[in-house]
């Protein structure tokens, strides 16, 4: 049986023991996704309610809101615990991404509740970008829908390797095993077409009734597997970012006085140690790490995910957006790449479009060279296309405005991902994942530029922007 951490039993523990335990518990980030009205918000509300993460005043407010806007009759509408916007409550849908935290004695969790409507696909992609696992909900009455396929594809493109397929609303089909087996079979067959191998677990639940969510195993007599919460507590998620080559995107030049010059940011992968020889990209200038400074004091080393400020033994020219890597590592700056793209704007993407982009902390621009193909959401086949419309997914070749040190997305999700920004409105219009770096022999308007000319142009744009 799972024991939950509550305010009541917290007061009975030694605070230092509790804090130590909290620090050493593993953290799992996951999202709920799927088609509209499949019960994503209700499931998260059930998890929060049953793990005793709701305060008395929240529960009272939930009861009042359920009477005023609820769609569950006399029962609590648990979706209101995450659907906080007035429009969400009135329409009974999720619009924005809602993040919630809860913990048990086995693990800590951060949940992203993402919308199911097609028009809010951009919000789903935003929520999935930081997650280790996805819970894909399917309405037992409807089976696999187009948005189910789209969310499955986006989750795998964004590097999520663990997928729990929660076949929800089993109470409305009287917990029939044959319905569960049919949907499970259809999804397993469909998953073979996904672009990467995914660890899949199928589980029957009723989020509204709380069946097979947090309770004892065996609530559905023919199902012999784990409950959803037990699966979340025990599933093994392997994070490779510590084993990856060191990448430190510079976010801020920290200069509080004349005696201190540091470079601040979050270590995106690998390990950084005092004394380590590093080089700044794209310049290639080398130096040694003198200090690793944090709010809590200096460190001997830092691991991926830590926010740090580093001090070098000698001052070199480093700016916001530069990338620090190990001196022995080879990362050749490139000007073109092939990327998978999720298009999020109403205006179609066409070759020749120019956008501002952000890669890690680097702001620059790129041009769409050509659209390689678009992916058919229904069967995942690739077909030629002259444009990518709203919520389309495809592959395009792009040309960067300057030489950039980048990784392919599979090797590093921070330096291999691209945020695409409209130059006029400054709105995010797409998300890109670098799949392949291309030859730098780029022909622009029939002119073949030498490498020194390209570097000179990048230098001018960097120090004399116009």
UniProtKB/TrEMBL annotation:
Its EC number is 2.7.7.4. GTP binds at residues 34-41, 113-117, 168-171. One of its GO terms (biological process) is hydrogen sulfide biosynthetic process. Gene3D superfamilies: P-loop containing nucleotide triphosphate hydrolases, Translation factors. It is an enzyme of class 2 (transferase). It catalyses: sulfate + ATP + H(+) = adenosine 5'-phosphosulfate + diphosphate. GO terms for molecular function: ATP binding; GTP binding; GTPase activity; sulfate adenylyltransferase (ATP) activity. Pathway: Sulfur metabolism; hydrogen sulfide biosynthesis; sulfite from sulfate: step 1/3. Residues 25-246 form the Tr-type G domain. Coiled coil: none annotated. InterPro entries: CysN_GTP-bd, CysN_II, CysN_NoDQ_III, G_TR_CS, GTP-eEF1A_C, P-loop_NTPase, SO4_adenylTrfase_lsu, T_Tr_GTP-bd_dom. Keywords: ATP-binding, GTP-binding, Nucleotide-binding, Nucleotidyltransferase, Transferase. Belongs to the TRAFAC class translation factor GTPase superfamily. Classic translation factor GTPase family. CysN/NodQ subfamily. With CysD forms the ATP sulfurylase (ATPS) that catalyzes the adenylation of sulfate producing adenosine 5'-phosphosulfate (APS) and diphosphate, the first enzymatic step in sulfur assimilation pathway. APS synthesis involves the formation of a high-energy phosphoric-sulfuric acid anhydride bond driven by GTP hydrolysis by CysN coupled to ATP hydrolysis by CysD. Heterodimer composed of CysD, the smaller subunit, and CysNC. HAMAP family: Sulf_adenylyltr_sub1 (MF_00062). This is Sulfate adenylyltransferase subunit 1. It comes from Candidatus Erwinia haradaeae. The gene is cysN.
């Amino acid at each position: 049986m799972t024991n939950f951490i509550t305010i009541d039993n917290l007061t009975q523990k030694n605070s230092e023991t509790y804090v130590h335990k909290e620090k050493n518990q593993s953290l799992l980030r996951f999202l709920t996704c799927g088609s509209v009205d499949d019960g994503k918000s209700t499931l998260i509300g059930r998890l929060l309610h049953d793990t005793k993460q709701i305060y008395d005043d929240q529960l009272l407010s939930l009861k009042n809101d359920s009477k005023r806007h609820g769609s569950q009759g006399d029962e609590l509408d648990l979706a209101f615990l995450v659907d906080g916007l007035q429009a969400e409550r009135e329409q009974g849908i999720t619009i924005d991404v809602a993040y919630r935290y809860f913990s048990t004695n086995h693990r800590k969790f951060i949940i992203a509740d993402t919308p199911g409507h097609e028009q809010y696909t951009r919000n789903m992609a935003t929520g999935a970008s930081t997650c280790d696992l996805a819970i894909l909900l399917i309405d037992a009455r409807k089976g696999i829908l187009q948005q189910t396929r789209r969310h499955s594809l986006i989750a795998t493109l964004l590097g999520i390797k663990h997928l729990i397929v929660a076949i929800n609303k089993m109470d409305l089909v009287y917990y029939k095993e044959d319905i569960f087996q049919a949907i499970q079979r259809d999804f397993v067959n469909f998953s073979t077409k996904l672009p990467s191998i995914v660890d899949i677990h199928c589980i029957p639940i009723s989020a509204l009734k709380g069946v097979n969510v947090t309770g004892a195993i065996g609530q559905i007599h023919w199902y012999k597997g784990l409950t959803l919460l037990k699966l979340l507590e025990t599933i093994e998620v392997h994070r490779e970012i510590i084993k990856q080559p060191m990448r430190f995107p510079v976010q801020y030049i920290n200069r509080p006085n004349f005696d201190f010059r540091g470079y601040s940011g979050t270590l995106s992968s690998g390990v950084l140690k005092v004394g380590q020889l590093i080089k700044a990209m794209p310049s290639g200038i080398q130096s040694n790490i003198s200090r690793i400074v944090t709010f809590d004091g200096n460190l001997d080393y830092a691991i991926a995910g830590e926010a740090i400020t580093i001090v070098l033994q000698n001052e070199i020219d480093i700016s916001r957006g530069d990338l620090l890597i190990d001196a022995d590592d080879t990362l050749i700056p490139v000007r073109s790449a092939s990327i998978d793209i999720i298009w999020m704007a109403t205006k179609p993407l066409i070759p020749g479009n120019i956008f501002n982009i952000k890669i890690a902390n680097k702001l620059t621009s790129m041009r769409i060279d050509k659209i390689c193909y678009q992916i058919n959401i229904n069967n995942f086949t690739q077909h030629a296309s002259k444009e990518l419309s709203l919520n389309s997914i495809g592959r395009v070749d792009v040309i960067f405005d300057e030489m950039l040190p980048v990784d392919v997305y599979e090797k590093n999700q921070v330096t291999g991902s691209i945020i695409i920004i409209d130059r006029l409105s400054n709105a995010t219009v797409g998300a890109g994942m670098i799949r392949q770096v291309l030859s730098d022999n780029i022909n622009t308007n029939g002119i073949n530029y030498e490498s020194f000319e390209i570097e000179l142009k990048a230098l001018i744009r960097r120090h004399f922007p116009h």
